[in-house]
């Protein structure tokens, strides 16, 4: 089941920057230098911020599973 959690709000600065709330950074393993991916959220006018390293690991896992499945 997907969990919805509200971490707080942020204001877009003059350079288009936002600060990710500390609780979100802690829970989502985001430290200084963490690369993130910004994608448009489906079905509405917003976006999602994803930890790029975790996303890459997940995609590699999916790719391995597809490879294993196709070999059987």
Question: What features would you describe in this structure?
Answer:
The protein has 72 residues and is α+β, with helices and mostly antiparallel strands. The chain has a domain at 25-71. The chain contains two helices and two strands. The chain has helices at residues 22-27, 52-71, and strands at 36-40, 47-51. A hairpin with a 6-residue loop joins β1 (36-40) and β2. It is elongated, with a radius of gyration of 16 Å. It starts with 21 loop residues before the first helix and ends with a helix. The model has no long low-confidence stretch (mean pLDDT 89).
Outline:
The protein is α+β, with helices and mostly antiparallel strands. 36% of the residues lie in helices and 14% in strands. Strand 1 (36-40) and strand 2 form a beta hairpin.
Descriptive keywords:
72 residues; alpha+beta; 2 strands; single chain; 2 helices; two-stranded antiparallel ribbon; 36% helix
Question: How are the SSEs ordered, and which strands pair?
Answer:
Blueprint: H1 22-27, E1 36-40, E2 47-51, H2 52-71
Antiparallel strand pairs: 1-2
**Helix-strand category:** alpha+beta
Give the overall shape, derived from the CA principal axes. Answer: elongated
**Mean of pLDDT:** 89
Main β sheet profile? 2 strands, antiparallel
| SS summary, helix count | 2
- Give the helix proportion (percent range): 25-40%
Beta-strand fraction estimate:
5-15%
Arrangement of strands in the largest sheet = 1-2
Counting DSSP E segments of at least 2 residues, the number of strands comes to 2
Model regions low in confidence, pLDDT < 50 over at least 5 residues: none
Secondary-structure element order, as H and E? HEEH
For the termini, the CA-CA separation is 30 Å
The Rg value, from CA coordinates, equals: 16 Å
